[in-house]
Amino acid sequence: MTVSSSTASPLAPDWLQVPADLNALHQPMWAGSVVRNGAGALTVGGVDVHALKEQFGTPLFVMDEADFRSRARAFKDSFDAAFADICGGVDVYYAGKSFLCTAVVKWVEEEGLRLDTASGGELAVAARAGIPGERVALHGNNKSDAEIHRALDMKLGRIVVDSLDELVRVGAIAQARGEQAKVMLRLTPGVHAHTHEFIATAHEDQKFGLSMAADTTAEAGVSAAEEAVAAASAHPGIELLGLHCHIGSQIFEPDGFALAAEKLLRFLAAMQGKYSITMPELDLGGGYGIAYTPVDTPRPAAEIATAMAAVVRSTCAELGIDAPRISIEPGRAIVGSTTFTLYEVGTLKTVRVDAPSGARGDAGNNVTYPRRYVSVDGGMSDNARPVLYDADYSAVLASRTSGAAPQLSRVVGKHCESGDIVVRDVYLPGDVAAGDLLAVPGTGAYCWALSSNYNYLARPGVVAVRDGSARLIVRGETEEDLLNRDMGA
Length: 489
Ligand SMILES: Cc1ncc(COP(=O)(O)O)c(C=O)c1O
Description:
Lyase, Ornithine Decarboxylase, Chain A, domain 1, TIM Barrel, 2 domains, 9-stranded mixed beta sheet, 21 strands, 28% helix
């Protein structure tokens, strides 16, 4: 059903267009199987949102299993193809921090990927899922001794060491056990990704990684990264596999990844020459962007892979070194778009707002404009990203289509917090009413994983839908779950 477009609200941000058809789905934001059925309801994997609501309630994370598998395969296949002549393919470590449960670990493994973890808890999920330790990596800037022991117990394929302090601890623990820890060194290549400041991680003034900048105050004037290479390659408790970097998140342009790859390869070649060692592996991290709104333009995995392979190929040729085995760690780009959150609409209210100065349209003439608040039955406890990162999302009316005119809306949660915003600005049909279902796409990554019990809300379950049936892969919490850690005195 096509709704004639109306004028943009002066309250809307410049990037937000009034959709020509509010019922249409902007496909890059959605999992592959999401469509509207004949009755106008959203369906995923052949299951409609009314049935999901009936069986599992709301809020609910709804994941398209086939879509997850195909995005995972796309990374593996495209990077393998692009790097085949350089290093025989690429090891793809799914970044479990983005979303992790045992079902997902099994899919990852079945699709030929490996797993990147960041804590003892994530290792526990990996162990329960039965993935072999050699296919698992452990990250973290402050690993406990217990986590290091656990990594060694599980015979992990790699421990990514984040600091000189940690290098000493990992080496000592492994040596005391009569073992060698397989270590990658996480470096900060000083590449600034084009992304939100809070999630850019490759600059110097932050907690992650070993700096590649020469420390002029140190006696030898070498960088922390070089000190770590020298120490690791000489330590009997350490097998130095190679180098690692992660330049940030939600990055669209391949240039940043390519530049980081080049800087790390130059450093790797210099260190191999200086210390007469071979570092057989290089991990270029994750951070590939996805579409949260219609203006986001993610690149296909194959395009990124080709750009990165070109730089690795030419840099290794120029340096005259054998290319190390390349690995990457995508999280968001695999799981993000596989999932939408299904909410039920409750309270609605419309406020009148002065247009901000500089806003588009006829602002600035003392006229106020309507902004409708659409409250849903979840909020910042199931999606903290708008609060943490000012992240933008989108939403559609999921339970039906509508011919009503678009109305600028703000989707908010039910928490006692005025910043509890799920979707800051979106045009929804003017007749959205209590009891309607809304779907917010792109919530597969860093939403359930960052969820909380703020205001004693139960964390939602996660449902995987495939071939016409839906099953819980993580059950939602009950009131009993919420109360059973309270000791009562
Ligand atoms: C070391 C490391 N690798 C991979 C990732 C995954 O990033 P993304 O989900 O943006 O691909 C992260 C995310 O923070 C990270 O810190």
